[in-house]
Amino acid sequence: MIQIENLVKRYGSLVALDHLNLNIEEGEIFGLLGPNGSGKTTAINCLLALLRYDKGDIRIFGKPMKPNSYDIKKDIGVVMQNVAVFDLMSVYENIDYFCGLYVTNKKKRKLLVEEALEFVGLSDYRKMRPKKLSGGLLRRLNIACGIVHKPKLIIMDEPTVAVDPQSRNKILEGIMELNRQGSTIIYTSHYMEEVEQICSRIAIMDKGRAIATGTTEELKKMIKTGEIILIDAISLTPDELARIQELPHVYDVSYTDHKLKIKLSSGKHNLVRVLEYLQSEDIYFGRVLSELPTLNDVFLEITGKELRD
Amino acid sequence: MLHLIKYRFIQIVNDRTSMFWSLVWPLLLGTMFFVAFGRLGSNDAIGSADSDWTEIPVGVITVDDSREGDTFAAFLESADEDIIALQSYSTEKEAEKALKEKEISGIYKVQKEPELIVGKSGMNESILSSLLESYNKNYHLMTSIAAKHPEKIATAMEEIANYESYTKENSLGGSSLNPIIHYFFALIAYSCLSGAFLGIKASIDGQANTSPLGARRSITPTHKLTLILVDFFVLVTVHFINVLILCGYLRFILKIDFGSEVGKLLMILFMGSVIGISIGVAFGAVSKLSINGKMGFAVLLTLFPSFLAGLMFGNIQHIIENNLPIVNRINPAAVLSECFYCLGIYTDAAKLSRNLITLGLMSILILAIAFIAVRREQYDSI
Question: What residues does the ABC-2 type transporter transmembrane domain cover (chain B) (predicted)?
Answer without folding.
Answer: 18-372
